[in-house]
């Protein structure tokens, strides 16, 4: 598999904090402008972010639909670091290192620049809507506040204006929670809803089971199940002053006397592949 694309496909999420009790009216763009403005607040240098990512679905179609992962991002002035399950990516001003612990391989690539911006994009809530106008066209934005233990929890709920066919359910929904005092992100829940076709016999059998009655619909004579695909992001750490990346390139490889790189003792059972000469 393309390990670089695997890491870049991390649906890692950005959470934002709205000002407490910001007034909302469905016909104004002010809340959407504010959402976009503050949603990149913690994406700065330096940064240390740790996430727990849990995916689940009412009716899993693929193995990834039911999974738990952890991701870590460290951005400093001199280097960056990403850890996603069994993959690590390390970057300095000249090279990019990709470590696959499953394959026991270390790949060296040339750093062609733009890494900082790419890492920030990977650590953000990757939405196609980049302006308040675009966001307002797609989502209805609601705001809530609540107290939960020692935190004053701020909540933002984005509901897609497009409904799932045959239902009153939003096709897409984002529920974000943050500490309203410190503006530290806490959790994000992203829900995508789709219709799964089923035959009439299956419909009849499921209709007798209470857990399915609100997920069954008939549309144009065909039977469907509503499938809620949910991704939960838990922000375990959001820090803006990391001392250094958790792992550095020097912890993994070093230059030999002939000028070529070799693995250090801790990675002696890894195969090292230098792709820079192939570029």
What tags apply to this protein structure?
single chain; 279 residues; mainly beta; outer membrane lipoprotein receptor (LolB), chain A; 13-stranded mixed β-sheet; two-stranded antiparallel ribbon; 5 helices
Give the overall silhouette.
Answer: globular
Distance between the termini: 20 Å
Poorly predicted regions: 1-27
**Radius of gyration from the alpha-carbon trace, in angstroms:** 22 Å
What does this structure look like?
It contains 5 helices and 15 strands. It has one domain: Lipoprotein localisation LolA/LolB/LppX (outer membrane lipoprotein receptor (LolB), chain A, Clam). The strands form 2 sheets. Strands 1, 2, 3, 4, 5, 6, 7, 8, 9, 10, 11, 12 and 15 form a 13-stranded mixed beta sheet that branches. Strand 5 (95-100) and strand 6 form a beta hairpin. The protein is mostly beta strands and 279 residues long. 14% of the residues lie in helices and 42% in strands.
